[in-house]
Amino acid sequence: MWNEEIECMSREDIFEFQLKKLQKTVKRAFDKIPFYTEKYTNANIFPEDIETLKDIEKLPFLTKDDLRACYPFGMFAVDKKEIIEVHSSSGTTGKPVVSGYTQKDIDSWGEIIARGLTMMGLDADDIIQNTHGYGLFTGGFGVHYGAHKLGATIVPISTGQTRRQVEIMKDFGTTCLIFTPSYGIYLGEVAKEEGVDFDKLRLKAIGFGAEMWTGEMRDRIEKTFNTKAYNIYGLTELMGPGVGIECSAQNGLHIAEDFFYPEVIDPETGITLPEDHKGELVLTNLEREGMPVIRFRTKDLTKLHYDTCDCGRTFVRMERITGRSDDMIKVKGVAVFPSQIEKALLKVSDIEPHYQIIVTRPDIMDEIEIKVEASESLFSDDIKEMMGVKEKIAGYIQNEIGITVKVSLVAPKSIPRNTKGKIQRVIDKRNLN
């Protein structure tokens, strides 16, 4: 699925076809979706005003609240009978966001993922074990369609059944695992308990995503499974996984620019930022038929790089997501991201990569407690050794985030594991309403 003609185009040619696709998408959305008709009319912006790519900045942003307000099918640009599949977000903070797909959209999704699997070194001879959840969650199906497009064998085992996952991995000769980082760590733990010799497995690549992660976490996964791990980025609103996927260079995720137009903005002002400036990622569908999403604020923080990659691709690369503009923990006036805590923890030996961040406000001041699992050997050592490790952890975290935290070492396997998808890292017990 290496599409050299598209993936290695000159930047000038990329911008030219993006403009044509953007103009077509904006007109179609304006003509077919009442939400866009009203929103753009109220903003006094019309399809004919989009004469250059920079003119996209004239269009108002789209937010999750907008999509929820159109629940369930108000954002569809085609008759419902043309929608052959729907997915949705969890809806944990309100009405879920519904995502609709025509057959053409499903084909496009498969094409995008297949390209990414090719970047990871996979082909039709591979066996891909997909631990992402199926159902309304887009994760499982995106990889599934991509594997079909590639011609590879897909094992749709979904989440959970961890010991069965290990058995399948050995018996089927799995060459690629797809998982969330936290579930991958847990899967590796169980595999070690089962006596798996990773050197004897046929694994040649891991695809991971759907959660925040750090370079140290990737290193841990690669050392555990003895293979390279490649980041996959996506979101339900735009399509699902596959918006960005890492290539062999592992130096940022290539965005499929023939399907998506990326921008980075200042999350406070909404002003578009130049290349190499960190800000909030904004994405626009360029090819989507069933539900074109235009200038969606992802809340994910990243940078974009337009130089040619070592792999030869010219498609823009986005850096891994290092936080979100809306889910940070603000403590004592300091913005703290869980990824900063994780980065500090992974520098310390004698602890396991399982932790929880508990934020409280016992009086008028915020407090953070970091619960971290001790290793079996450390937990059986004397109290002096444990105190030394706690002080080291506290020091690393303070150096990373600039504030003091309380560290608690807890018994091995006492922190709940992720067995069914994303894990809850932060428990905020403050009443901030």
Automatic annotation (TrEMBL):
InterPro entries: Adenylate-forming_Reductase (IPR051414), AMP-bd_C_sf (IPR045851), AMP-dep_Lig_C (IPR028154), AMP-dep_synth/lig_dom (IPR000873), ANL_N_sf (IPR042099), PA_CoA_ligase (IPR011880). It comes from the Archaea. The keyword Nucleotide-binding applies. Pfam families: AMP-binding, AMP-binding_C_2. Pathway: Aromatic compound metabolism. The lineage of its organism: Archaea, Methanobacteriati, Methanobacteriota, Methanomada group, Methanobacteria. Keywords: Ligase, Nucleotide-binding. Residues 87-283 form the AMP-dependent synthetase/ligase domain. Monomer. One of its GO terms (molecular function) is phenylacetate-CoA ligase activity. Residues 333-430 form the AMP-dependent ligase C-terminal domain. Transmembrane segments: none annotated. One of its GO terms (biological process) is phenylacetate catabolic process. This is Coenzyme F390 synthetase FtsA.
